[in-house]
Sequence to fold (209 residues):
Amino acid sequence: MTDEPDTADPQRADYQRALDSMDTFIDVGVDDLMTLARRAEHFAAQRRIERLWVTEIMSTPLLKVGPAASMAEAAHLMVSRRISGLPVVNEDEALVGIITEADFLRALGVPAHDPTFTLWQTLESLLGHLSRHNTLHGPDDSVSQHMQVNVISVTTDDDIFEALAQMKAHKVKRLVVCDAQGQAVGMVTRSDLVKLFFDRFNAPHDASR
Fold:
């Protein structure tokens, strides 16, 4: 993270870019100054987005479980709080794994991780499991027996483009955010990035910029 002031106010470089973008010599008047100011604000806003940190969009406080928690406890948390993944931390709050709804289904014998299965086949398998057993009981195993230990994460010093790059490279939908001590402090999901886009898209703007 840089030490530049975290502001979207136009800086000298933004005014210079705005002036260059007009591609003409101007005898500056009031209208010209207003146009120049609008363009400078546009470039300042663009610069602000380019410097948006994951800490500004991550979900906090972070729900998490310990490795000794049962899979049933983890499943209850995911269902009741409507989340699809839980970071697993040790007694020092350091990240040691992640447990997802797909891991829970796999623990039940539902092939959620099978790349040859479609969503519909996975649902059919889950419903078949319910019909055979009448009710669904969570496994008594601990989270540590089913969690993924190679967790893709970002740090509090990373920006949103680094988060996007990590999601794309590793084909994941969520990233745990860790601080300098390796402690899990937040979560960034693909939905957070999509929401950011639509929030910016729907923000009031001057069509003349």
